[in-house]
Description:
Blueprint: E1 16-19, E2 24-27, E3 36-40, H1 51-71, E4 76-80, H2 87-96, H3 100-117, H4 133-145, E5 149-152, E6 155-158, H5 174-180, E7 195-200, E8 220-222, H6 224-235, E9 240-246, H7 250-264, E10 273-279, E11 282-284, E12 287-288, H8 299-305, H9 308-316, E13 324-325, H10 328-347, H11 359-365, H12 371-387, H13 392-407, H14 414-419, H15 429-444, H16 448-460, E14 463-468, E15 471-476
The structure holds adenosine monophosphate and zinc ion.
Residues 41, 228, 253, 257 line the site of zinc ion (ZN).
Amino acid sequence: MHHGLGRATPPFMKLKIYDSYSAKLALFTPADENRVTLYVCGPTVYSYAHIGNARSAVAFDVLFRVLREIYGAAAVVFARNFTDIDDKIIQSMKDTGESLEAITTKFADIYNEDLAALGNLSPTHTPFATHHIDDMQSLISRLLEKGHAYAQEGHVLFSVESYEGYGKLAKLDREGMVEGARVEVAPYKKDAADFVLWKPSADDEPGWEVPTAWGLNGRGRPGWHLECSAMIEAVLGTTIDIHGGGQDLRFPHHENEIAQSCCGTDTGDVPLARYWMHNGFLNMGKDKMSKSLGNIALAHDLLKEHQGEVLRWALLSAQYRQSLEWTDSLLEQAKKQLDKFYRVLSDMADIETSPIVPKSVLAALCDDLNTPEAFAALHALREDAIKATGDDRKAAKAALLGAGEILGVFQQEPEAWFKGIVAEGGLSDKAIDALLEERAVARAAKDFARSDEIRDELSAAGIIIEDSAAGATWRRG
Ligand code: AMP
Ligand code: ZN
């Protein structure tokens, strides 16, 4: 049954996704069609997200939209967490003198704003780790009781040896795992592969009292891997349909999530999630864009110079599992393509219609989110729209808008699109309107020297003026 978006629905499509756990393309079937669950690991909120982080968010936003289209918006439950307790946040508290809450709410708000500007829908739930400390402690208590964890020197560790399923997602041998996790030998570990579930907090660090049954003294805080397992259980349930994140999270983060959840809850033989999806990297040159390499472009900064849809289009130009190189020409291409579509939509501004997702675009997305194929289908729809006459124009516009909706593009009025955004130090919309007004007055008074001067000034600022019988309109070139 389709719990609709209140409009004509496409034929039921079969969604195929590449499942990293079984290492094959799989037909997606949810455990419950009326409650399809998706979890994606979210950011640690102590600084700005870079455009590589945004790639992960945008890819899974398209998945969210496709699931909503197939199962109905009300049936899809999507959670993405905020990690708001972490060593890096504590370091930032020490560096800036600000409170944990001040830092994390500031950067969570910025993250939400930047993602919205990139055309992402809000997830159904955005849990903060610090709001789920009880859930985390409950999970640790169960792991301790079942013999999957042990407490030592203020820490609680997961005993990797206690779980035979460990390594099934990563498909690494023990040596590869120790290397991949960069695990240190530490005096409180029985085995170098064991990982931290809970660690002690110094007096000047944020921390929480622990249950006496753990046999530890003093306050502490959760380990990162544990946070996701506990939040998934609290917000979505013990097993979910799809778990997503970047390729770098596959090991150790997701492997550890599986170990914690499978050993601490009753997931049966399901490895926490029924399907695992991992996005490829956004690269700068040959290297992965990453904070540690310092080769990052912040989404927040890029959004000051480019419209959100330009960045989104660029991010979707490669299928999500492929790597994608971030370049200026990628952005130029994206802008050019979008201009073409907005031009057609502008020519169809007189037509009233509602979006209908075209089969060709949905079919491409149902093929493991093949966005390049979806873009090719979009171009065909644009050609159709240009050729359409009479009543066909209405259907053509509905298809373009529907395709835009499922990809999260064409969400602006064409006029607003062509006006673009004010670059730093650029002329505001108001300033441009005022200059055009002054030019009209100058022209009426036959002061052509002044009207030409204004035209040159606007042109130097990159503003293109189009005169018509109805008056002058402008756009940022
Ligand atoms: P982090 O804040 O590093 O935990 O990253 C947040 C999300 O972005 C995770 O799902 C990462 O796997 C993903 N991510 C980080 N860097 C990149 C990149 N260069 N390209 C694509 N995804 C990335
Ligand atoms: Zn996670």
